[in-house]
Structure prediction request, 381 residues.
Amino acid sequence: MATKIDYYEILEVTRTVSSDELKKAYRKLAMKYHPDRNPGDEAAEAKFKEINQAYDVLKDEQKRAAYDRFGHAAFENGGGGPGGFDFNGFGGGGGLGDIFEQMFGDMMGGRRGGGRARTGNDIQTHVEITLEEAFTGVKKDVKIITRVACDSCHGTGSNAGESGVETCPSCHGAGKVRAQQGFFVVERPCPTCHGAGRVVKDPCKACHGEGTVEKERTLAVQIPAGVEDGTRIRITGEGESGGQGVPAGDLYVHVSVSEHGLFQRDGANIYCRVPLRMGQAALGTEIEVPVIDGNRAKVKIPAGTQTGAHFRLRGKGFSVLRSSARGDMYIQVTVETPQHLNKRQKELLEEFEKEAGENVKGSPEHTGFFARVRDFFENKG
Prediction:
């Protein structure tokens, strides 16, 4: 049996990695091995699937706890723990089954009889958008390689169509069977139909009775305005086809927002760093700044503005998800020291410095700092 690679090794992180560091590692690797960036590279495609599988487990606290304790065995044989125990199969109507369901949810991958119906596998992909696209919302085409219903048998898996498919005689269509193990009643996938609940007599030659074939698809995904970096969008029914009449799973699109050259986002607020010349900060001025929506705004800078000053523009920030509201924009000022002065500029600054040295009120922070320095050395003496 082939040894499975450790999920932490796949994502190139340690077992003590934080959730934020884990997300950064995933994004870096997902972008590197994404099929769109490596067309025709089967090794990159396989690596991309490994990365998504590992991240899907480790980003979830419950799944990660189970993996840290049991390793890959936590998600094998229907999602059970060591030895393939299925924690979702301990009967109904309360008791241990319900306790495990509440504790672990769908961490173990199994489905209780009264829960969600059996479906095809869920799949994941990654898309990167700009900050402007995150502000306005955007429709993106994503390419996925997945299993779809076979055209030859229309997903039935039978050459004869639905007439060639019968209800499984072992599980009577349930797709699972129960067995007594000590005090417990354990549910397992039916060994006759492998969980399908149906049996195909004359398998389709195109899909060999699976009812599905692998195919590359392109989907248009609508990304809403206000989406944040790391958001996961679920598209119901666009995952892998289950075949033989089983509904398709879901597609999960992981969204990453690229860094911007002008703006930094913090939730619904936008920050823009604006450098001012020394003269502008000292005398005061009015500047024009860009806004994320493509417009411009004027900001009045008062005389004597210092580095670190903030100016707030209400309602000029980022869009809020599922709302018409917007956050605020903050202008962060830095005062820039001039370089490469000519002779006349130096003379003017020297004259200014001489005059300013006699004006204590003109530089209160400067004067206060050196007064504290003087007191410090006097106390040392």
User: Anything to note?
Assistant: The first helix runs from residue 7 to 10.
